[in-house]
Amino acid sequence: MAQLPLALKLQPHAAFDSFVSGPNGAAIEHVKAVALGQRRESIWLYGPPNTGKSHLLAAACRAAGEAGFRPIYLPLDPNIDPAMLSQLENVDLIALDDVQRVAGRPGWDAALFSVFDARLQRGGLVVAADVAPRECPFDLADLISRAGAAAIYRLNFLVDEELREAVIGHATMRGLSLEPAAVNYLLQRVSRDLGELTACLDRIDHYSLAAQRRITIPLVREVIGAEQTDSR
Predict the structure, then answer these.
(1) How many Å apart are CA 101 and CA 130, to the nearest integer?
(2) Which of 13, 44, 109, 231 could form a disulfide with 140 if both were Cys (CB 3.0 to 4.6 A apart)?
(3) Closest listed residue to residue 57, CA positions, set 103, 98, 20, 110
(4) pLDDT at 5
(5) Does the global pTM surpass 0.70?
(6) Ranges under pLDDT 50 in the chain
(7) Pairing state of beta strands 151-154 and 42-46?
(8) Cα dist from 70 to 14, 25, 32, 89, 149, whole Å
(9) Cα(97)–Cα(113) distance, rounded to whole angstroms?
(10) What is the DSSP letter of 101?
């Protein structure tokens, strides 16, 4: 029997409160309702990288755990045994990430079909992929049909003001006070990728604590400058 992987530690700031909804409000509310057992359905999230799919799965697992349910977050990988999916009967919320990475690979389509089929009426399944079910390279036609029966949402990128709000929200959750000018500087000099921006916030936080300095544009400039020097 395949060994079920140890539960992955969720990122400390991956929560619904730190997810700026923007154009994705309906998806967030539906995922939250499934995570809390308020709706017995399955959900398929898709969209390009860095639209928050993994964040939303982790947030769902955190909310489910805090509500007393048994969740599991699994990023799928071709190198692990698909038979592990047969061990999830007693899990209340299954969050499967990067489904496209295993689609069509030996053993995976059948294992995924069993999960979708078992959860069709029971609910408690949220999966994420880069594409919609019919565009995922599954070999099993019945799996495409089962996956297509889930509620399907495309996640979209945040616009400028929403991205700024997200950066401020993540900074606040870390106990950081960012001036508007510092937020603008980050958006102009780092990236428009929220994952890269939040990782940069962590580095700024550590640098500020180590230097015993408050966060200003000069400090942010030092952190970014040091990273650019190290990457050469």
Answers:
(1) 9
(2) 109
(3) 98
(4) 46
(5) yes
(6) 1-7, 231-232
(7) parallel
(8) 17, 25, 15, 11, 24
(9) 15
(10) G
